Amino acid sequence: MPRRRQIEGSLNTARATAELLRSLITRKGHSDATSLLSDVRIWGTQLQAAKPLELAVGNIVRRVLHMIREESQNVRSIYCLASNLMVDDLHVKPMPQLSSQAGRAFRQPPPRSASLHNLLDLQHDDVSAAAAPSQQAPDSQDAAQSGAQRRRGGHWEGKASIIDQLNELVGELRDIDSNIALHAVEHIHANESILTFGMSDTVLAFLLEAAKKRDFQVVVAEGAPRYGGQELARKLAQAGLQTTAIPDAAIFAMMARVNKVLVGAHALLANGGVMTGVGSHLVALAAKRHAVPFVVLVGLHKLSPLFPHDPSVSFNDFKSPSDVMDFSMVAEVLDAEESTASVSEEQLYVHAPNPVFDYVPPELISLFVTDTGGYTPSYVYRLLAEYYSREDYTLSRELLDTIVR
To answer: Nearest Cα to 159, choosing from 20, 24, 16?
Structure first.
């Protein structure tokens, strides 16, 4: 389906990818986390190869792989704890007599404040505690793990948790535009003038949500050559918002009269830059020149660990040149070629590229508004560490080359 473009758009593609992976994981049996990781990596690489320009496919696959790795670590921690209890039962040592108050204090240490330093300490302590029992009693750990494996009939017990997390992910993707729109009131104030560019469902939902409590004006650039801004202006006007539609050539002249710029995005890259509609880079430059905040509305399903300078990835797509040049003009060129033998073919041939996306670097972006809140471009590396594992940044280079060939 991705090759035949039956599913269009990053959000629809991400939702379909999550549902497909959930179906495949549910139907096929896996005895351990390693086999599940291998299968998901193979399936995900094939899906990404079918539509390389839709980075949301690989993003969802990486999130699923991260879920499996975390669940596998949790299962190993449980095994280590069970093995430690078995060793303690075999080697019971007399405990010194403690008063009831002292014993209660020993069993329940005082809570620690949830600071970043303490969280890192707790994580370090958990890793150390999980590794210690496996070194002390490896035989007991293997016995407990193999026994649990036999009771389950050869199925990895963490698989049910992975399916539950995938159900939550599908629900999250279903409501992602509304979750982004919940932050609209925090970023749009009364009597402001907002400039947007082209057509974006996320921007539309964001503006409509803000209009419930704020009175503001919207300036919509048409977004040639597809002119999606005309559709956005019509929908905003039907909803009762004061809307002004302008051609792209008037963006710089109108920028001094607006308070901020809102645009959607196709992909959020690892360096904090975004792939968005063609022409957005010019809008960002104009906003930077007039010191107007340039705000990007993007769901975290579009967060990609890839960089714009990656030579193995193509970030742009090209549509038919008919949007740029009418076919009647091409026909005139062909007629002139037949009637004029003295003119070379190079002089008559006209290139009409029609790219879909534009790249906006992080230094031109003021803020990202996501379904989980607002972030600056410098915070993107923290989001990558939270949602993906570094081992999965490249799904499978060898397999991808094999599929492409």
So the answer is: 24
